[in-house]
Amino acid sequence: MDTLRVLIVDDEDDFRETIVKRLNARKIQAEGAASGVKALQVLENKDFDVIVLDVKMPDMDGIETLRHIKKMKPEIEVIMLTGHASVEFGLKGMQLGAFDYVMKPAPLNELLDTIGQAYNKKRGLLH
Question: What local confidence, expressed as pLDDT, does residue 90 receive?
Fold first, then answer.
C-alpha cells in the first residue's frame, strides 16, 4: 500500500508540530508548513494526498490558500480546520472543493478518521 502523505498547514507552531509528530508515529508521512505561502512553495516540489489547512492564518488565509491549491493540484484532498467562530469558512471551503472541515481543537482520532476518508476518496475508494 502507498504511504499516505499529509501536509499540515497551520501558523500555530505547537499545534502543527504536535500533529505532524503524531501522524508520523502512526506511519503517516506528514510535514508541516507555517503559512499558506509556505504550503504553496512546498507543493511546487512535493506531492501530498491530503492537506489539513487552517482557515485563520496571517498573510494568506485558508480560503485563499485552498483556491491556489486547487488550481495547482486539484487532485489533492483538503480538510479545513476551523474555530467555533468560523464554521462558515469551513462551509465556504467545501464549496470551493475542500473535502470536509474539522473544528479546532480537533481530537486526533477525529482528524485521523477524516484524513483516512479524504485519502480513500483521492484513491477512488469513496464515492
Answer: 82
Is residue 78 within 8 Å of residue 36, measured between CB atoms?
A: no
- Contacts of residue 115, defined as CB under 8 A and 6 or more positions apart, other chains included, come to 4, 6, 23, 28, 50, 52, 79
Annotate 65-95 with DSSP letters as a single string.
HHHHHHHH-TTSEEEEEE-GGGHHHHHHHHH
- The segments of the chain whose pLDDT lies below 70 read 1, 84-85, 126-127
pTM of the model: 0.93
The count of domains in the chain is: 1
Please give the helix or strand (H or E) that residue 100 lies within, else none. Answer: strand 100-103
* 123 part of a folded domain: no
